Structures are given as C-alpha cells and as structure tokens.
Amino acid sequence: MRMVNSGAAPLTKGLVDAFYSRLKIPVKQGYGLSECSPTTHLVPWERWDTCVGAAGILLPNMTAKYVGEDGEELAIGETGELWMKGPNIMMGYLNNPTATANAITPDGYFKSGDVGHQDAAGNFWITDRVKELIKYKGFQVPPAELEGILVVHEEVEDCAVIGVFIEHLATEVPRAFVVVKEGGSVSEEDLVKWVEAKVAPHKRLRGGVRFIKEVPKSISGKILRRVLRVQAEQEEKDMSEAAKAKL
C-alpha cells in the first residue's frame, strides 16, 4: 500500500501523525459533496506531509471562495463558509426549488455548508459544518477539532462532540461522547484536562464527558450527532425532573 486517502469528515493532524507513526503509510485527505459530482479538492501525493489535515487544492475548471456571514468574500486565512462554482455543480434538487434557491446563488455558486479557510499556499481547510458549530458565548467551536484531539488519546477508541445548552449559563457548551478502548480506565476528569491543555479557553469541554459503547454513525461513516443530541436532551430532562422531585 502506497497511500491512504481519507474523506467523509475532517482529518486532524494528530490523527494523521498517529496513523503514520504506527503504520508508516502516508495518509492524505480529499473533499467533495454529492452536489458537486462529487470531488472538488484533493491533496497531491507529493504534498501529503506539507499540509497535513488540509482538504487539498481545488480541482481544475472550478472556482471557490470562503464567505462570511454578511455574504462577502473573505481574505486568505479568514474563516467562513466554502462556496464553489464549476461545470460539475448540480443543476438543483429534484422538485425542490426552495432548497435549490437556498443552496445555489444567482451567479452559480454552491453553498457547501462547510466552514474553513484557504492558506497562502492555496490549500483549502475544512474545520466543520456550519450547522454543527457550537456557539459558546459568541465564540464558534468546531466539534471536529475537539474530536481530533480526543481520538489520539491512547485510551480512546472513538468519540463525538456536540453542543448542549446549559440554562444557567445561557449558552451552548461542548460535551464529548467517548468510547474507551477495551481495558481502558480513563476518567472524565482525565479527558477534560487532556483537551484543556491543547485548546483555547472557550473550547474546553465544559459540558463534560459521557462514556458510551458506540458512536452512532451513518453507513458512510459520518457521526449522527442528532442521535447524541436526543440523548443529551433526555439526560437534561431526567436531571430536571429529579431535581423537582426533591423539592
């Protein structure tokens, strides 16, 4: 095997480093969506170790830009939503003109729904989905970044991070759902401290850690965060009812 290509979810540097140190096989990333037929970016083989974690460079015959919440194009290095245009972009969603109008601009750009930035070397970076970003007191926290940090812990088999709303804080906070490797004994406090040492203060796991047997995923391997949100909502509801029962 000469190279491994990754897709479906953001690939972090920590995971690439762990993979390569163990197997000595290069691993790089690509990017695309069904609406784009489907690949739009690839990391060239010879550059796999110079832009670890990047989605790659834009494929020929396409244009792309990162756009802010005001709809204006952002400068290199600034974070926003990725918009793309080219002959491979779909004509629209079948029998759904509303969804089509929301996804494709009048001048033909497809709104990917993914957040990231472009660097000075032309590499595109994807950090998370617009809808999955955790909003903590005005800061945006990408779940994929925290998952990339957690999964390289020697006792973590798999993980997922979502935002949970804490009423007394009046904001969302990151909460991790973790599958521990067989025989592992890592604690919630251990993992909270592990992440805290590697991120900015607003990205800490203020929502705590919940240990589960398996991370719910789709057939394509994408995390089903909605399942975890339902679980978190039920937990908050149970805690609230238990508190009321004590009154």
Helix content: 10-25%
Summarize the helix and strand pattern as letters. Answer: EHEEEEEHEEEEHEEHEH
Spatial ordering of strands, largest sheet:
1-2-3-4
Quote the beta fraction: 25-35%
Quickly count the helices: 5
What structural category arises from helix and sheet content?
alpha+beta
Provide the residue-averaged pLDDT: 93
Which segments are poorly predicted (pLDDT under 50) over 5 or more consecutive residues? none
Biggest sheet features: 4 strands, mixed
What separation lies between the terminal Cα atoms?
63 Å
Family: Belongs to the ATP-dependent AMP-binding enzyme family.
Domain AMP-binding enzyme C-terminal: 145-222
Pfam family, one: AMP-binding_C
InterPro entries: AMP-bd_C (IPR025110), AMP-bd_C_sf (IPR045851), AMP-dep_synth/lig_dom (IPR000873), ANL_N_sf (IPR042099)
In short:
This protein has five helices and 13 strands. With 247 residues, it is an alpha+beta fold.
Key structural traits:
4-stranded mixed beta sheet; ANL_N_sf; ligase; 247 residues; AMP-bd_C
Please provide a written account of the structure.
This protein is α+β, with helices and mostly antiparallel strands. 23% of the residues lie in helices and 29% in strands. The protein has helices spanning 13-23, 97-103, 143-151, 188-196, 225-246; strands at 4-6, 27-32, 39-42, 57-58, 63-67, 80-85, 110-118, 124-129, 134-136, 139-141, 156-166, 171-180, 209-211. Strands 1-2-3-4 form a 4-stranded mixed sheet. Strands 5-6-7-8 form a 4-stranded antiparallel sheet. Strands 11-12-13 form a 3-stranded mixed sheet. The radius of gyration is 20 Å and the shape is globular. The N and C termini lie far apart (63 Å). The model has no long low-confidence stretch (mean pLDDT 93).
